[in-house]
Amino acid sequence: MQPLRVLIAEDETIIRLDLRALLEDHGFVVCGEARDGVEAVDLARELEPDVILVDVKMPRLDGIEAARRIYAERPVTIVALTAFGDRELVERAVGAGVFAYLVKPFREHDVAAAIRAAAARHEELIAARREVGAQPPPAPVELMVHSSAGNSWPLRLGRMPDGSLDVSITRERDA
């Protein structure tokens, strides 16, 4: 099994260097380092790492928005590392696609364990999505939608082969 390739996105140089050494000591390959959120998005696109370790508070683009953009382009394991652990920030991070959240100061073994656990959970999610996507789409559902003005519309809801939703009017609406 190949070692996980990790992109580090951290604006503080000394922490970035410590993270690189820590990750390499634990058998990870550091494929790149970003100093801000914009650079993290660009490097994630270019290097296609297995895991991204991202600081939440960074210049030009914060780590949560960087995670959102990265995950929207290509689902990848993202672990947030930050000095801030308030609930609202954690919820925003999870909503952006972050799979694990570590609060500084961190212990060396916590970082490696969080990366491995997040990567395993992310792989399970991707496998489940593939399995669901491989299933034939269910039969379309037909229903009548009624408005408060007394109008009715017959609708058909179905799933297209690409997974998108097909909503169509099945015949002229009743007045």
Helices and strands in order:
Elements: E1 5-9, H1 13-25, E2 29-34, H2 37-47, E3 51-55, H3 63-73, E4 77-82, H4 87-95, E5 100-103, H5 108-134, E6 141-146, E7 152-159, E8 165-169
Parallel strand pairs: 1-2, 1-3, 3-4, 4-5
Antiparallel strand pairs: 6-7, 7-8
Helix pairs in contact: 2-3
Gist of the model:
With 175 residues, the chain is α/β, with parallel strands linked by helices.
Task: List the defining traits of the structure above.
Rossmann fold; 2 domains; three-stranded antiparallel sheet
Give an overview of the whole structure.
With 175 residues, the chain is an alpha/beta fold. It folds into 2 domains: 5-134, 3-Layer(aba) Sandwich (Rossmann fold); 137-175, no CATH class. 41% of the residues lie in helices and 26% in strands. The protein has helices at 13-25, 37-47, 63-73, 87-95, 108-134; strands spanning 5-9, 29-34, 51-55, 77-82, 100-103, 141-146, 152-159, 165-169. The strands form 2 sheets. Strands 2-1-3-4-5 form a 5-stranded parallel β-sheet, sandwiched between helices. Strand 6 (141-146) and strand 7 form a beta hairpin. It is elongated, with a radius of gyration of 22 Å. The model has no long low-confidence stretch (mean pLDDT 88).
